[in-house]
Specification:
The chain is α+β, with helices and mostly antiparallel strands. It has helices at about 1-15, 20-25, 240-250, 295-345; strands at about 35-40, 50, 50-55, 60-70, 75-80, 85-90, 110-115, 120-125, 135-140, 145-150, 155-160, 175-180, 190, 195, 205, 220-225, 235-240, 255-260, 265-275, 280, 285-295. Strand 1 (about 35-40) and strand 2 form a beta hairpin.
């Protein structure tokens, strides 16, 4: 009871308009879940629900930062300072935000609704009946960091916070390039396949004079990506990935495509026209992203992938031969040794 009273005191100190939604079950929702946060856009009424920061640690007035849903194009969650976009959590992939690959967790029950009436994302945490005094909290602090915590016994324990590292900042790289923080030498913005540097941050189409409209063009896959800004993307949830590729290929203005929902092996179709902005790569998570290239670039990547595959096969063959050698030599040695001993007898 004492820890629960401490929680109530903490709530009164951190009071916001959304305090009931943050700390207690939402009316009409499953009582086995406690809501972490809910951000939404109601297209019928124009009502937006979002998180805002305090002015300071001691001033609960509305601060400069807000975490909200951007419903244009394919909806995505974004962090703003005033009207300046700082960070995209990205679009919902069916499993997580595209810009938060580490988000997948057994802690959450996530509900995402996107239709003609509303776009809503709600995180809930399952209330363990053996420990009913565990409460979740979600907030934007006065420095512009989105934080999620659990009240355990007598204190808040943070389990996730947003990142504003170099590649997470909005437009850390310019149009038609993506941010790669894992370069062994130094950080750099890399051009998408078929593009060349215009500056240290921006890229433009390579000037090869080859048409990309019904002229043998195709797509190069980039794995483990945070998808480009989806506020300018088009979505069709009825299409499979094969149909999505065909749709993009038929439209000569289509620059790239990706799956809108990866939770069921890839359903729904996202397509982009015009410049691609605010993409990045991850070491082992993220989504597959398919960029349109002309026939020359397509052949170059096919050859490159073929050589890579050949090297991989040779490496596997070399390892297999080495293992066989290590296994066979002792057997042969034992056989020869026994044979010599037999002759001596």
């Amino acid at each position: 009871m004492e820890s629960f009273n401490n929680l109530r005191q903490q709530i009164s100190l951190e009071h916001r308009e959304t305090v009931q939604r943050r700390y207690f079950p939402v009316a009409g929702k499953n009582p086995d879940y406690k809501t972490v946060d809910l951000i939404s856009t109601d297209r019928r009424t124009g009502l937006n629900r979002f998180l805002t920061s305090w002015k300071s640690k001691d001033d609960p007035g509305i601060g400069n930062y807000s975490y909200q849903m951007v419903p244009t194009g394919y909806p995505q969650a974004c962090l703003y300072m005033g009207r300046t976009l700082l960070w995209r959590a990205g679009s919902w992939t069916g499993l997580r935000w595209s810009g938060v690959p580490e988000m997948k967790s057994k802690l959450f029950n996530v509900s995402f609704v996107n239709n003609q009436d509303e776009t809503t994302i709600m995180y809930s945490i399952f209330s363990n009946l053996a420990d009913p005094k565990v409460f979740p909290k979600s907030m934007v602090d006065e420095s512009g960091i989105v934080r999620r915590s659990l009240w355990q016994e007598t204190r808040w324990v943070e389990y996730w916070s947003s990142s504003l590292a170099l590649c997470d900042k909005y437009l850390s790289c310019g149009p038609n390039s993506y941010c790669d923080p894992y370069n062994e030498v130094n950080f750099e913005c890399k051009c998408f396949p078929g593009f060349e540097p215009k500056s240290s941050r921006d890229c433009v189409r390579e000037k090869q004079g080859v048409s990309m409209c019904n002229n043998g063009e195709g797509f190069v896959k980039l794995a483990n990506m945070k998808l480009p800004d989806t506020s300018i993307a088009h979505v069709d949830m009825s299409l499979s990935m094969i149909e999505c590729e065909q749709k993009c290929l038929r439209n000569c203005s289509c620059m790239a495509y990706a799956s809108a929902n990866e939770s069921e092996g890839g359903i729904g179709c996202l397509t982009w026209q015009g410049d691609l902005v605010d993409a990045r790569t991850y070491p082992d998570l993220g989504q597959d992203f398919y960029i349109r290239v002309d026939a020359i670039v397509l052949a170059q990547y096919a050859k490159k992938n073929g050589l890579t595959q050949k090297k991989r096969m040779l490496a596997i063959l070399g390892v297999s031969v080495a293992i066989m050698f290590l296994l066979v030599v002792p057997v042969v040695y034992c056989f020869v040794t026994k044979k010599k001993k037999g002759k001596e007898i």
